[in-house]
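Consider the tokenized backbone below.
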């Protein structure tokens, strides 16, 4: 198919098509990236909130389970749960990788 010249009278349609194509490319290049970042932030926040809720419910269930199966009052369940979480925190603390110190 032969190219039409501006003298053919179809140049307004070609100009409109070119503008629409360029605007679409710019929109895809900018909005697509921003949309991906926004999705990552939203899903990350959702995962963090759900993770926190699950951790709290796990701690409550652990105290209740220990309270049922270990003789003694509820203080024994709290003591055992506290020791478990303290030991877990100590293990995680030893596995950390501190940043190297810089002399300024």
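A designed sequence for it:
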């Amino acid at each position: 198919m032969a190219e039409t010249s501006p003298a053919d009278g179809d140049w307004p349609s070609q100009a409109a098509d070119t503008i629409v194509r360029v605007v679409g490319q710019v929109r895809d290049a900018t909005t697509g990236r921003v949309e991906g970042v926004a999705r990552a932030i939203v899903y990350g926040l959702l995962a963090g909130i759900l993770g926190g809720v699950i951790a709290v419910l796990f701690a409550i269930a652990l105290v209740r389970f220990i309270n049922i199966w270990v003789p003694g009052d509820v203080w024994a369940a709290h003591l055992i749960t506290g020791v478990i979480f303290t030991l877990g925190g100590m293990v995680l603390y030893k596995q950390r990788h501190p940043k190297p110190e810089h002399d300024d």
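Residues 20-94 form one domain.
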